[in-house]
Amino acid sequence: MKSEYQPKVIGFLCNWCSYAGADMAGTSRMRYPQNIRIIRVPCSGRVDPLFVVKCFQRGADGVLVSGCHPGDCHYTEGNYHTRRRFALLREFLDYLGIAKERMRVEWVSASEGQKFADLLSDFTAELAGLGPRSKILDG
């Protein structure tokens, strides 16, 4: 019996908000796809765009970068840096041959467990619709 395709998702989640939101979703037993591999970072502003490119290089189907809502960053301006940095990377992904839809930047607070679960469900469904990503980049 052939198993259904499940995309590989890497999630860079800020310690103060998004990771806590994901934790709330888990401890509240909210249903969401289990195909995300979470990397806990101090702030979304600390995620280097090359980390995202490396994830795609290593076979990820999608990458989620999530942090505090703008104005609520524990480090004051980290999420503003994230927003600017990944707006540029989004355009660069086309140049690399990777669909823009395979990367998302979202804001999730610690109290938004349901939002995290819904976000991950939507993202996984969108990636499943795109199908597996072929390796284009040299490793």
How would you characterize the overall build of this protein?
There is one protein chain. The chain has 139 residues and is of the alpha/beta class. The protein has one domain: Rossmann fold. The chain has 4 helices and 4 strands. The protein has helices at residues 18-27, 49-57, 78-96, 113-130, and strands spanning 9-14, 36-41, 62-67, 103-107. It has a 4-stranded parallel sheet with strand order 2-1-3-4, with helices on both faces. Helix 1 (18-27) crosses helix 4. The longest helix is centred in the middle third of the chain and has 19 residues, at 78-96. The radius of gyration is 15 Å and the shape is globular. The N and C termini lie far apart (32 Å). 42% of the residues are buried.
Topology:
Layout: E1 9-14, H1 18-27, E2 36-41, H2 49-57, E3 62-67, H3 78-96, E4 103-107, H4 113-130
